[in-house]
Structure formats: structure tokens, C-alpha cells
Amino acid sequence: MAPLPGAELVQRPLQLYRYLLRCCRQLPTKGIQEHYKHAVRQSFRVHSDEDNPERIQQIIKRAIEDADWILNKYKKQN
Predict the structure, then answer these.
(1) What counts of helices (H) and strands (E) characterise the chain?
(2) Are residues 74 and 31 in contact, defined by beta-carbon separation less than 8 angstroms?
(3) Lowest mean pLDDT among 8-12, 51-55, 60-64
(4) What does the pLDDT average to over 51-74?
(5) Does residue 3 contact residue 67 with C-beta atoms inside 8 Å?
(6) Does residue 7 contact residue 63 with C-beta atoms inside 8 Å?
(7) Distance CA 30, CA 28 (A)
């Protein structure tokens, strides 16, 4: 299950970036939100030179799965 509606529409890196930043807003505290926003920005920079479409789709799929796991982790703690 996707953490936010619209995960199935993410096809490009910029869409993923925006989607993940929206996911960060769902986290419980400002400190946790800032931590994951920083991680999203760093990962975006690291993979910015990726040009293989298959690899880009793998990264998008994994990032959405990871976001789902993180949001579920914090929902269970509250």
C-alpha cells in the first residue's frame, strides 16, 4: 500500500522528489521531518546523473516502498 495517494502516478525523478517531500510532511515531529527531507535531497543529488530508464524506474519503485515502510514505522509508534 502506498503511503500517499498518487504513488502510482510517479514516473519521473522530479515527481518522485516532490512525492517524497510530501511524505515527509506526514511524519510526526519537525526533527524527523527534517532528517528525512535531508536524506531525500541527498539521494536526489547522488542519483541526478542516472540516465538508464530501467534503473530510474527501479530507484522510483524502491523509494516509494521505503517511504511506505518509514511512514508505517512511525504510525505504529504513535
Answers:
(1) 3, 0
(2) no
(3) 8-12
(4) 95
(5) yes
(6) no
(7) 7
Determine the residue type at 10: V
CA angle 5, 7, 9 (to 5 degrees): 105
One-letter amino acid at 65 equals: E
Spell out the residues 6+ positions from residue 43 whose beta carbon is closer than 8 angstroms to its own. Answer: 63
State which amino acid sits at residue 51: D
| SS3 state at 72 | helix
User: Exposed (0-12), middle (13-18) or buried (19+): which is 25, by Cβ within 10 Å?
Assistant: exposed
pTM value surpassing 0.85: yes
Listed by start position, the domains of the chain span 11-46+53-76
pLDDT band (50, 70, 90) for residue 1:
very low
CA–CA separation, 29 vs 56, rounded Å? 30
